[in-house]
Design brief:
By secondary structure, the chain is mainly α. 72% of the residues lie in helices and 0% in strands. The chain contains 21 helices and no strands.
Length: 491
């Protein structure tokens, strides 16, 4: 871990250390901002005492980060185009990182202070988009090329659809529970049950389900939101010390060979399916292993990119054999090839069996670029888990008491948590970032509507207002900070 500081000037090393602290601070705040949603229902249904609930939630959040994989992490990283990530000077990389992290932290702390369950996912994505847009305006690049538009659309759709799914599914699940268990104690609030039989805690199996689903929400929150922190640290490391992190320096000769073979087989794939690719890839252009110095990610040059990758990795058994510039070039080419392959996979007419093969080649192609060191994963896991155990009260109060006009019943808590855990878990498996805050808050609202408990309009308006404002505010903040930082420290 500490070797990444070797060869850096004092100023750049200090900037790297501070940038890493900023990312971990973001994840720590995410812990007590977003994870509070996971424990609100078990606390307000008296299934667990508050402090026991947040400690258990912190542990499961930590476990979720460790087991979550990297699909969401690189969905976040790929919001920015390859050229911005790999063609920036170190000072430019620092400005980019601090601009997006500062705006994300500012908005998260502000909404937490007022007890508004805003989305850390929206916050971070807005900050990244702001940096990309500002860079486009400052460099004269088309805005459509300043950010990864398709990736941004995919992520925004997941963030928009997931709360609607939470609202409808949780409401429907509650109605099913009321239909098939109409006389059960699960439809009482803790206060109602205490009046009825002198007990506040839910029945055994209901309590078990509430606790299990709450820990499930915590686990999938860690597996989804924790990956965003991993992606941010990789952005920091790639931007500031590219020589050590643009490629996985621990890759074996077998893994490097698979990467090279995947690129060559991809060229064969394009030749086999040339009838579908005339408008996207220039197959008649003679492959050239020497790429122009000013490199642009253009799908038409894919055959030349493949030739260059094959040439660079031809006799390479370890990435240490390549100098820093060649490592940067390999990563850039691999990511461009993967981006083109993704576009090709969506073209009409190509047989399904061929598309399946292409997707397998894409996995091998990015085998040595989409990774994270073990220390990064553990650092994010500890930051998110630790944050969960601190500062949770404000958001818990909002979710537990201020969304509905009546108290939360045991069945409402179960329906909301089971829905949230399932939706977030499926999103993590698909590599799509979603908002734990919005999914669970909308699920709670859905159960309130289905139970005819009514909604507190003031709270709902605040949540919706935060949802609407998060993107424009964080885009403007990060864009402004990026411009200012570039003006002061780079120009």
């Amino acid at each position: 871990m500490l070797e990444m500081f070797n060869g850096l000037s004092f100023e750049l090393g200090l900037g790297l250390a501070v940038a890493l602290i900023f990312v971990l601070a973001y994840e720590f705040i995410n812990g007590f901002h977003d994870t509070a949603n996971a424990v609100a229902t078990v606390i307000y249904t008296k299934a667990m005492p508050p402090h026991m609930a947040v400690v258990a939630s912190g542990i499961f959040n930590c476990a979720g980060v460790l087991a979550g994989g990297l699909g969401v992490a690189y969905a976040i990283v790929h919001l920015l185009p390859v050229d911005l990530l790999l063609n920036v000077a170190s000072a430019h990389g620092l400005v980019m990182v601090f601009a997006l992290l500062s705006s994300a932290i500012f908005w998260n702390l502000g909404t937490w202070y007022f007890g508004i369950p805003a989305s850390s996912s929206h916050t971070l994505i807005g900050a990244i988009l702001g940096v990309g847009l500002a860079n486009s305006l400052m460099t004269g690049v088309e805005i459509s090329k300043g950010i990864n538009v398709q990736k941004a659309i995919d992520i925004m759709l997941s963030l928009i659809v997931s709360p609607l799914v939470g609202l409808l599914v949780a409401g429907g699940l509650l109605l099913l529970l009321k239909k098939y268990f109409s006389t059960s104690k699960i439809h009482k609030t803790p206060e109602e049950r205490q009046t009825w039989d002198g007990k506040k805690r839910p029945p055994f199996w209901t309590r078990f389900t509430l606790i299990a689903s709450a820990m499930g929400v915590s686990f999938v929150h860690g597996s989804n939101d924790g990956q965003k922190g991993i992606g941010m640290i990789m952005l920091v490391l790639i931007g500031i010390v590219p020589g050590q992190f643009v490629l996985n320096m621990e890759s074996t000769s077998y893994q490097i060979g698979r990467t090279k073979d995947a690129a060559l087989h991809m060229g064969d794939f394009y030749q086999r399916n040339s009838v579908y690719l005339d408008q996207m890839i220039d197959l008649k252009k003679v492959p050239n292993a020497e790429m122009p110095q000013v490199f642009k990610c253009d799908s038409k040059d894919s055959m030349s990119s493949i030739a260059t990758v094959a040439n660079l990795l031809g006799s390479t058994e370890h990435y240490n054999q390549l100098d820093v510039e060649k490592r940067r070039e390999v990563r850039r080419l691999l990511l461009c090839l993967d981006d083109t392959a993704k576009k090709v996979s969506k073209l009409p007419g190509i047989p399904a069996s061929e598309i399946s093969d292409l997707n397998k080649l894409r996995k091998d192609l990015t085998l040595t670029t989409e990774y994270a060191p073990t220390w990064v994963i553990f650092a994010v896991a500890l930051a998110l888990g630790g944050g969960t155990m601190i500062g949770w009260r404000r958001i818990v109060l909002t979710v537990g008491e201020k969304i509905g006009q009546k108290g939360m019943t045991y069945s409402q808590g179960m329906a909301a948590q089971i829905t949230a855990a399932s939706a977030i878990g499926l999103a993590s498996m698909s590599g799509l970032p979603v908002s734990t805050t919005h999914v669970l808050s909308s699920a709670v609202a859905g159960t309130m509507v289905a139970n005819r408990s009514g909604l507190q309009s003031g709270t709902v308006k605040n949540i919706v207002l935060a949802w609407v404002l998060t993107l424009p505010v964080t885009i403007a903040l990060s864009a402004g900070l990026f411009w200012l930082g570039t003006f002061i420290f780079v120009n």
